[in-house]
Design a protein that fits this description.
30 helices, elongated, 30% helix, single chain, four-stranded antiparallel β-sheet, alpha+beta
Length: 1213
């Protein structure tokens, strides 16, 4: 789905030096030294530099500087064949007398290398240059080496019996009636031979290169003698079928190597038309022909896709001179045309997508444009929605689209311009299958050859007009002047004399007028309209310089500024034939952003280089304001990138997207979210679907269309719809693209969604979709987990505005419960009562976290009671049946949980219905229900609460059952200690409260919570148990305090103090033991000894000095000196060990660093190797086997220190 666009053309004139009768016969190219050669009818060879944009003046009509080399042939001898031998760096020339001449152009030396009988008809070197095939006038075929040795000679013509040899010796013209065409690999070549006794019939013969034997031959057919060319790829042999005897125009036919005809197509001309030249380009994707018609000669270029041949370009010439063509051997889109008078034109084509900005495909095919809006129907050509038919072949088109107008301008091969207005896109479906004939617009001025046609506004066009030598003739309305030669920027005004009908196509009544014409001194490479400034466009000249053109209507009459001014010093590094201008947000203003792609795959942005391996690109906007938000970029590695425009403007694109190169050395686990792998090699981006469609359209080499929806674009569209409060559109996109529904509430925090739940339900208005949404809500943030690499959240201002709306009455819990509660309220407010609504409400209850099954069953219970009563209330029809509601709950939840929830309602009948619908075994649940039914109500509720582990309710019910069940109540309290506070609240009798306190304290003692147990015992005045609790916990001060409360005797307190002192010593608390010994036992010696054990030297000395005990003072001093000596010895031993550890660590670390450096050196050579080519089980780390003992990603210092310590311990043991 692409068009062949004429990017530039250069016209020069070859000055023939030997009279007006001299004609150019042949041409060839030297691609190594960029030279072109011509042979004339005066037996003169002209050599010149190949005209290009670098060495040619854009003002066409320039004389080509050529050197003339006369060959000095005899008077009756003429050149019949001509080619360039790259290996010899010379021209090989054949003459009618049979001479084979080798002409070295640099030295002007001519060497006769051979002579053949009957004269030379055609010379064709093999593609590799090793062989030379020659056909003679006697019907012989010779194959020679480059050393002029004949490999074989055979007859390729089957002459009739009365064949006259003198017929083959007549002077030759510029036709090659015995062409030779090689296959691209040089293994075979084909010739066109006449059939005896049938002068109109010919056969294609395929010959083997090495043996010279005939490989195959086609059936006789009326083929034109000079038209034969083998596709370089080898798939087809092209020739021309003359069908004048059938009353039809010629058709181009294709043969296989075995001589069988494969296919054909008509050239769509008059019966008298004739194809004189047929040539494939070097890539085998374009077929060019010179067609001679009644009133003109034309260059036609076809391409093949989807089993259809498209005429992509037609360029017309005057019929007065013969026209010839040749493709550039190295550049597949450059063709050279020349006439017999020496007028030469170089055409440079480029492939451009046929999909324009608003996703409409306009595919050129001869005089037709196949129109398909891809947003309506994604169908590849030659299929279409409707067709536009023009008077002649279409060469250039420009489309203008706005909210109210769709305009199309086309430039035709006869030099006329057509303008038509299409209806708005919403009416296009009504045009399906229709064909519209378009009339040419009326113009009083010749337009020349229009290139790069663009709309400036709805009434003005801008194009680059080129006037060459072929425009000097046949101008009926104006006289041609030499000053008009070359390139001009032409501004054209369009006016329509007919009123446009909104739902139809306006194809006639258009007039065009030239408003201004600006002469340019450089080749115009491309023109792109400025979407930000009306009446403005950007013009790129050869070399990459960018200028801004302002329409005449946009310049005030008083202003002195020119139409064309340099734009912000923007210059591409080279010429970029593919240029796009995007409207982007820069601050508060819209500004244009220029993207340019050159022929080498370098993508420029505002003159800077963004990507160096780009194959195609497009831009995408997600809103109706046409502000571009993303760049879609495909690389030569078949990777598709979705680039945020903000990253480009901030200069972060190259770093974020890793220079748009795939790093093959990355581990497989490091998944890259920046690009998408395109599944078919060579696929190109041809367009995008903007807005909520969020699609990228790719076309493969085979021609089929593929529409993909990149996750990044889809999520951007969803968030854009949510920010604009288009909840239904966002939900539909989520369902269509299988996006996690949580994105609908997580895009700027689920709390921000809650105030808009009612609006969400109102817009969606589809209970099935809402139910699907409810079932998908999870307690996680999709924007931070699943889609964190794809989306950027809305700006802080948008989030602040959202959070400020209507959140006063909302009490937030967890995400699931809060969102489903808001949805449930919205359903009850917005949706009318119906069974579907009730089921959706039940879904919100069942999916809550935790599930609100009891509330759901309560609603089912109401329905069931209405059914049992047999009420005829109108509300009855607004609810589903109880059985249906139960089945819905059981489908959403665990059946056991629903059964327990039914029991929790203390409705045994409802529980039985749930069990039956859950298909539980009656032997399992009926005995339980029957047993519960026989119990008193409170006891039944108590048993159900115990079963459901609702212990607080169970306690309340058993307490309410009366004094008889007091023992069971105490058992429940002891089994569930968390109920003791509630039990104290429920009981008011002091005796029972004391029992509860003691039971609680005993439980705390069992759990080793001694301090809390003692406090509990004190609450019920159980002092002895409190003393034991404090003593068990080591709270000696509180033990002695409780002993005081118990009013123990002096001797009992002393014994208790001695016991506590021993216990504290055993617990490693000599300091506390010393206090007891001193304060309660009065034993100074024991107290000093205990303080020395605790190393509390100052306290020991203080007490010794208080009691004036010199012996104790000396004892404290001696003990402190002994302790200091032990500490010094321990320190010295520690220093020695650390020194050994450090030496070992440094030695191991040095060896580790040396080994790591060696590994990095070895891995450097493997960086470019894909992981898939390396065995996962292989290892190049054998050199580390002595040092890697199963360590995994640990700090290396700790690793080896730990290893060393382990080894030391092993030696010690």
């Amino acid at each position: 789905m692409k068009n062949l666009k004429l990017s530039s053309q250069i016209s020069v004139s070859l000055e023939l030096q030997f009279g007006s009768e001299e004609r150019v016969l042949f041409s060839t190219i030297d691609i190594e030294r960029n030279r072109i050669f011509f042979a004339s009818s005066a037996n003169v060879v002209y050599s010149a530099q190949f005209p290009s944009s670098q060495n040619a003046n854009v003002q066409s009509g320039t004389v080509l500087r050529a050197e003339a080399h006369p060959l000095g042939l005899e008077v009756d001898d003429v050149i019949t064949s001509f080619d360039y031998l790259m290996e010899k760096e010379a021209l090989i020339i054949g003459t009618s007398s049979g001479l084979l001449l080798l002409h070295e152009v640099d030295s002007n030396a001519i060497e006769v290398v051979g002579r053949v009988d009957g004269g030379v008809k055609c010379i064709s070197p093999s593609p590799d240059g090793d062989l030379l095939a020659i056909t003679t006038g006697l019907g012989q075929l010779l194959v020679m080496t480059h050393d002029w040795d004949v490999l074989f000679e055979t007859a390729y013509e089957d002459h009739r019996e009365d064949f006259d040899v003198s017929e083959s010796l007549r002077p030759a013209d510029d036709k090659c009636e015995s062409p030779i065409s090689w296959r691209g690999d040089g293994k075979y070549f084909a010739t066109l031979s006449s059939v005896p006794n049938s002068p109109l019939l010919r056969k294609i013969k395929v010959w083997e290169r090495d043996s010279g034997s005939l490989h195959s031959s086609s059936e006789p057919k009326a083929l034109i003698a000079e038209a034969l060319d083998w596709m370089p790829s080898g798939a087809k042999i092209a020739s021309v079928h003359d069908r004048r005897n059938e009353g039809k125009c010629p058709s181009i036919v294709f043969f296989e190597r075995n001589g069988l005809e494969r296919s054909s197509f008509s050239i769509s001309e008059s019966v008298s038309a004739a194809v004189e030249v047929l040539r494939w380009n070097c890539h085998s994707d374009l077929l060019a022909a010179v067609v001679r018609c009644e009133r003109y000669n034309s260059l036609k270029v076809w391409s093949f896709s989807n089993n259809h041949w498209y005429l992509k370009q037609e360029i017309r010439y005057s019929r007065q001179e013969r026209l010839r063509l040749m493709w550039d051997p190295a550049k597949p889109l450059q063709v050279v045309c020349w006439t017999s008078s020496g007028q030469i034109t170089v055409y440079n084509f480029i492939w451009v997508t046929a999909v324009i900005e608003n996703s409409v495909a306009l595919v050129i095919d001869d005089a037709n444009i196949l129109v398909t809006p891809l947003s309506v129907a994604l169908i590849p050509p030659p299929m279409f929605l409707f067709k536009l038919i023009f008077p002649t072949a279409v060469r250039e088109l420009a489309f203008y689209s706005s909210d109210s107008k769709n305009l199309l301008a086309t430039f035709l091969s006869d030099g006329r311009l057509c303008v038509l207005e299409l209806p708005v896109l919403s009416f296009w479906e009504d045009l399906e299958g229709k064909e519209f004939s378009v009339e040419a617009s009326y113009s009083e001025t010749e337009l020349g050859s229009l290139l790069h046609l663009q709309w400036l506004d709805s009434h003005t066009l801008l194009g680059a007009s080129h006037f060459g030598f072929n425009h000097k003739k046949d101008f009926p309305r104006t006289a041609f002047k030499d000053k008009d030669l070359g390139y001009h920027l032409v501004e054209i005004e369009t006016l329509c004399s007919e009123n446009h009908v909104p739902d139809s196509v306006t194809c006639s009544g258009w007039n065009i007028y030239i408003l201004s014409k600006v002469i340019v001194e450089k080749l115009v490479i491309s023109i792109a309209s400025n979407p930000v400034k009306k009446g403005s466009a950007f013009v790129q000249f050869n070399g990459g310089d960018v200028f801004e053109y302002v329409s005449q209507a946009s310049i005030p009459q008083s202003a002195s500024s020119s139409h064309l001014e340099r734009y912000n010093d923007v210059s591409m590094s080279s010429s970029c034939p593919w240029i796009t201008v995007a409207s982007v947000n820069r601050g508060v203003k819209l500004k244009p952003l220029l993207f340019g792609l050159n022929e080498h795959g370098v993508l420029h942005v505002e003159g800077g280089i963004l990507c160096s391996n780009c194959s195609s690109f497009s831009v995408y906007c997600n809103s109706s304001d046409q502000v571009i938000t993303h760049l879609i970029l495909a690389t030569k590695q078949d990777l598709l990138y979705i680039v945020d425009i903000s990253d480009i403007l901030d200069g972060n694109a190259e770093v974020k997207y890793e220079n748009f190169l795939h790093n093959a050395s990355k581990r497989r686990g490091e998944e890259n979210k920046n690009f998408i792998n395109m599944w078919e090699r060579g696929a190109k981006i041809i367009g995008v679907l903007h807005g909520d469609e969020a699609a990228v359209i790719l076309q493969t080499i085979r021609g089929n269309l593929e529409c993909i929806y990149p996750r990044k674009l889809v999520l951007t569209s969803i968030i854009n719809a949510l920010v604009q409060r288009r909840f239904n559109d966002a939900l539909l996109m989520v369902r269509r693209h299988r996006i996690d529904f949580n994105i609908l509430v997580d895009y700027c925090g689920w709390q921000a969604f809650l105030p808009f739940a009612s609006e969400f339900v109102r817009q969606v208005d589809n209970l099935s979709h809402i139910t699907e949404f409810v079932c998908a809500i999870k307690n996680e943030n999709a924007t931070e987990n699943m889609y964190k690499n794809y989306v950027s959240l809305p700006s802080a201002k948008d989030v602040k505005d959202v959070n400020a709306r209507g959140q006063e009455d909302l009490n937030y819990g967890n995400k699931i419960s809060s969102v489903l509660l808001a949805i449930r309220r919205a359903l009850e407010e917005q949706m009318p009562e119906s069974p579907a609504r009730e089921l959706c409400v039940l879904t919100t209850l069942a999916r809550s976290d935790p599930p609100a099954l009891e509330e759901a069953l309560a609603r089912v219970k109401i329905t069931r009671e209405m059914e049992l009563v047999g009420s005829n209330d109108q509300r009855r029809s607004s609810y589903p049946s109880a059985e249906e509601a139960l089945k819905h709950l059981l489908w959403l939840s665990d059946p056991d949980s629903v059964f327990e929830a039914a029991l929790g309602l203390y409705d045994l009948n409802l529980a039985a219905i749930v069990a039956l619908n859950a298909q539980r075994d009656p032997k399992e649940f009926l005995p339980i229900l029957q047993e519960l039914e026989r119990m008193p109500v409170l006891i039944m509720q108590y048993k159900i609460d115990l079963r459901l582990r609702r212990y607080e309710k169970a306690l309340k019910h058993i307490v309410s059952a009366g004094e008889v069940y007091y023992a069971e109540c105490m058992t429940l309290l002891k089994d569930q200690p968390q109920l003791f506070p509630l039990g104290l609240q429920l009981f008011t009798d002091p005796c029972k409260r004391k029992q509860i306190y003691e039971a609680w304290g005993d439980n705390l003692m069992d759990e080793k919570c001694f301090e809390e147990a003692a406090a509990t015992f004190l609450c019920c005045c159980s002092l002895e148990k409190a003393l034991r609790a404090y003593r068990a916990g080591g709270f000696w001060g509180r033990v002695l305090t409780v002993a005081g409360l118990l009013k123990l005797g002096k001797e009992e307190v002393l014994n208790l103090a001695h016991e506590l002192c021993e216990e504290l010593q055993a617990l490693g608390k000599p300091g506390d033991a010393a206090k007891i010994a001193l304060e309660y036992c009065g034993d100074v010696n024991a107290a000093i000894g205990l303080l020395i054990s605790a190393r509390e030297w100052e306290e020991a000395l203080r007490i010794a000095f208080v009691h004036r005990r010199d012996d104790l003072i000396a004892e404290v001093k001696n003990a402190s000196v002994e302790c200091a000596g032990a500490l010094v010895n321990e320190y010295e031993e520690g220093l020695e060990k650390i020194g050994k550890y450090l030496a070992r660590y440094l030695a191991v670390r040095q060896r580790r660093l040396l080994l790591a450096a060696k590994l990095r050196l070895e891995e450097h050579s493997l960086n470019d190797i894909d992981d898939d080519t390396v065995s996962e089980t292989s290892s190049n780390l054998s050199g580390m086997s002595a040092y890697t003992i199963g360590y995994v990603e640990v700090e290396e210092g700790f690793c080896y220190l730990f290893q060393f310590k382990c080894s030391e311990q092993g030696k010690g043991n």
